[in-house]
Task: structure prediction
Amino acid sequence: MKVLHMLAAALCIALPAAAQDKSAEDIRQAARDAFGVALPDIENYPDSMVAGAWAWMSDVEDGKGALDPKTMQLIGLAVASQIPCEYCTYYHRAAAKSLGASDQEIAEAAAMAGYVRNWSAVLYGTGADVEAYQAMVDGLYPAN
Result:
């Protein structure tokens, strides 16, 4: 239990001081201001956790990561299509299109998600040896 308290304290410290001082309503208003609409994901998040959720969402959606925003949205679409989540699929498809993703790129992202899921089901279902599989992959793609 003490470890959980220490972890919780560390996570609170990691939030920007400004976020720690804001109420849940202030955080939700910041999200409304940033997107121009009320986001059901943030609006429905528990008050005690909304600051962290908004910080996470802001970091993912800010376009400052190693992957370009269109690629991030295509990954989101691929994952959402496999969960499956109607909300997320709709959002990530629209976001990817708004960032210039073509219909073919969207189709390939969705197909890749299905492709990976298919082979995962085959490998798990047949009990393929994980270590032998990893050795085979390492032979195909040696570390640089």
